Amino acid sequence: MSRIFDVICNGTPVAHRPWPRFVVDAPGWIGIGEDLADGQARLLSLWAEVGAVHMAVMVPGSSGIAIFTLDCPEGRFPSLGARHAPAIRLERGIADLFGLQPVDAPDTRRWLDHGRWGIAHPLARDGGVTPADTTYPFLPAEGPGLHQAAVGPIHAGIIEPGHFRFTVNGETVVRLEQRLGYTHKGVDGLMAGAPLDRAARLAGRVCGDSTVAYALAFAQAAEAALEAKVPPRASYLRALMAELERMANHLGDIGGICNDASFGLLQAHFAVLREQVLRAAHSCFGHRLMRDGILPGGVAVDLDDRGAAALRDLAGFLESRLPALVEIYDETASLQDRTVGTGILKPALARRFGAGGYVGRASGHEADARKTPGYAPYPSLRFDIPMLEAGDVNARAWIRIREIEQSLLLVRQILDELPGGEIALELPACAAISEGAALVEGFRGDIFVWLRLAADGRVERCHLRDPSWFQWPLLEAAIEGNIIADFPICNKSFNCAYSGHDL
User: Fold this and answer.
1) Phi, psi of 172 (to 5 degrees)
2) What pTM was estimated for this model as a whole?
3) What is the radius of gyration, based on Cα positions, of the chain?
4) Residue 326: helix, strand or coil by DSSP?
5) DSSP assignment, residue 392?
6) Label partner for 354 (CA 20 to 30 A): which of 305, 399, 407, 420?
7) 490-495 CB contacts, 8 Å cutoff, 24+ apart
8) Are the C-beta atoms of residues 202 and 187 closer than 8 Å to each other?
9) Would you tell me the crossing angle of helices 232-260 and 487-494 to the nearest 10 degrees?
10) Rounded to an integer, what distance in angstroms lies between the CA atom of residue 421 and that of residue 416?
11) Which alpha helices (DSSP H) does 196-231 contain, by range?
12) Distance, CA of 479 to CA of 464 (rounded, Å)
């Protein structure tokens, strides 16, 4: 029996919904880390609060999720990253924000803290001062003919800041090392003490292209904590918003991949399709990105007959235009030359990091929170999860194409089966400290939210984890052995979030 199952079967859970939370000791924490390293579980997230660390895991092949907590009265905890690499950057973020030190960690460099905050460990309330040294020791790479190329954090395009340090041999990339954290905005600190409605609005602003997914994850975590069940119509409308968001982003990404291969014509056509999705979203839900459309307890805007007709027209428009564009993509030799065999992410590495979304599914890792663990209304809807094994730029583009097709099927099903009734409920009062969690499928992959509400209903602690935490490191691996000129197209095919990562 694995250490995880041993704790679940023999431990005593604390109040937590919808999945159990267990307090473990240091040997138990280490044992769970070894299970993760052995592939017996998937790390969903790792986070902290003053004096304690938490992790969430999923057991492959099941919908079982569990939360584990280790108290850290001396400010230290055994490093998960020493056993399971996907935990390394999360541990570095914990050390920056809370001052809790992972013992025997393979990488102890600061991650989110660039030495410019003026205070060390801002969420630990220890009053420490950040060292004035703002240098960052990039990992060395030595050998004949090697040189470095530094890109960012300021880029030529209108994108967020991130630094990429390439070590190259001629044009071939030997190593890529990222430095992120430039868009850190203190979301954890802003959440603490916020009333639920303000926290919900903040969650929807973590990452602009995923405002629906973040708002949905936060709302589901709050509803779990309060044991509230939203009306069926609200859950269907939430799914409708989520699929519109997914299609808009996938269309933009496919166009961006084409543009990075110098095929601007296809980008223009995909941009037209994306624009139609955004206009339909604005017409139906009052905002192009559908911001603040989802709130704890339901949704803020109902869909009328005119909006339903507009979405049916949108589906017909996309179904009539998309196949021809896909055919051009697939039959243009110059595009295929740039995308096929470029930026390969090996399936074993995708599984090890638990990569979700198009990054994981293009490399044979089936992970979709709509199916597992699943949430309303998706268990009642029919759709497939596209999968490929090639793991290259082309595969990531095709996963997006197939997901757009599945989203169109889902939109039609939702419109056909949309139940009547209320679109929101009044949440019950919070009579005691309550905890809840949620796992929601955004367009990049699964978004995890953990929430503790105080007895007065305010947020005591909230943790949000973007899929990019597990995808950014994989980009470093995928670019090795490629030419540096192919980095933009590899980067776009991953399209990891800066803002979603730099909470």
Assistant:
1) -85, 130
2) 0.96
3) 22
4) helix
5) S
6) 407
7) 490/342, 490/343, 490/393, 492/253, 492/256, 492/257, 492/260, 493/253, 493/257, 493/339, 493/343, 493/393, 493/396, 493/397, 494/343, 494/359, 494/396, 495/253, 495/256, 495/444
8) yes
9) 170
10) 15
11) 196-203, 211-226
12) 28
What is the CA 204 to chain-centroid distance, rounded? 13
Write the burial class of residue 501 (CB in 10 Å: 0-12 exposed, 13-18 middle, 19+ buried). Answer: buried
pLDDT in tens, the chain (503 residues): 588 878 887 888 888 999 999 999 999 999 999 999 999 999 999 999 999 999 999 986 666 899 999 999 999 999 999 999 999 999 999 999 999 999 999 999 999 999 888 888 999 877 667 666 678 999 988 888 899 999 989 988 788 999 999 999 999 999 999 999 999 999 999 999 999 999 999 999 999 999 999 999 999 999 999 999 999 999 999 999 999 999 999 999 999 999 999 999 999 999 999 999 999 999 999 999 999 999 999 999 999 999 999 999 999 999 999 999 999 999 999 999 999 999 999 999 999 999 999 999 999 999 999 999 999 999 999 999 999 999 999 999 999 999 999 999 999 999 999 999 999 999 998 878 899 999 999 999 999 999 999 999 999 999 999 999 999 999 999 999 999 999 999 999 999 999 999 98
Q: Return the amino acid letter for 157.
A: G
Name the burial class of residue 336, with classes exposed (0-12), middle (13-18) and buried (19+) by CB atoms within 10 angstroms of its CB. Answer: middle
Q: Are 465 and 45 within 8 A, CB to CB?
A: yes
Q: Give the span between the Cα atoms of 242 and 219, in whole angstroms.
A: 13
Do 165 and 176 contact (CB within 8 A), yes or no?
yes
Q: Are strands 21-24 and 65-71 parallel, antiparallel or unpaired?
A: parallel
The torsion angles phi and psi of 496, rounded to 5 degrees, stand at -70, 155
Copy the structure tokens of residue 337: 């030359």
Interior angle at CA 385, CA 380 and CA 386, nearest 5: 155
- Amino acid identity at 310: A
Q: Identify the CA nearest to 137 among candidates 96, 109, 113.
A: 109
* CA 223 – CA 227 distance, rounded (Å): 6
208 vs 89, 274, 357, 497, CA distance in Å?
A: 23, 15, 18, 10
Q: How far is CA 224 from the centre of its chain?
A: 20
Could you give the strand order of the β-sheet that contains 52-58, starting from the edge strand earlier in sequence? 21-24, 65-71, 52-58, 42-49
Q: Bridge partners of 450?
A: 437, 463
